[in-house]
Specification:
mainly alpha, globular
Length: 179
């Protein structure tokens, strides 16, 4: 993976170094690395997110926005479907208290699930509102946007509706400015 060293990768590397220093200097390195039981939000997750960020930046530059959004929406569609199934009381896995109760989809906890679905809704709106897109694509994107919004709220996470509102506000701003 050849990533050009500009501000974006350098800031991700700086973030990763800070996460490692914080984890190594922690009194409880296990919790610092993996996160608390049931949440699993530790240094390993943050480092994975930093790596994912770098891959996304590279993909965005090389292959264009549409391919990136299609890949993101394909993955997020699975998260949304699983969250709605959990909300309906249909979960093929008996978690038996291993993870958070309620709606968390495949994300491990309601906050991450809400965040993922709050990202999915405005991204799906992009295609639902694009007059150049095929009618089937627009319809599917509209359904996904509504399902993601409902899933974000169904998690019960405070951040779901807040992040959803922020994402839709950004989308509205882009549309108003003619983007």
């Amino acid at each position: 993976l050849a990533v050009p060293w500009g501000w974006t990768p350098a800031s991700a590397a700086g973030f990763a170094v800070a996460v490692v220093i914080a984890a190594v200097g922690s009194d409880d390195r296990t919790v610092a690395l993996l996160g608390t039981y049931g949440r699993w939000i530790g240094a390993v997750l943050y480092l994975a997110c930093a790596l994912l960020f770098l891959v996304v930046v590279r993909t965005f530059r090389e292959r264009g926005v549409d391919r990136l959004l299609v890949a993101m929406l394909a993955g997020l569609t699975c998260v949304v479907a699983y969250a709605l199934a959990q909300h309906a009381g249909i979960d093929p896995i008996d978690w038996d208290g291993l993870l958070s109760d309620g709606v968390f989809a495949s994300m491990g906890n309601p906050n991450f699930a809400a965040a993922a679905m709050a990202v999915a809704a405005p991204l799906a709106c992009r295609w639902a509102l694009d007059p150049r897109a095929d009618g089937l694509v627009r319809g599917g994107a509209a359904v996904l946007a509504l399902a993601a919004a409902g899933g974000a709220v169904a998690t019960g996470s405070v951040q779901g509706p807040v992040a959803l509102g922020a994402g839709l506000a950004v989308l509205a701003g882009v549309l108003v400015m003619g983007g």
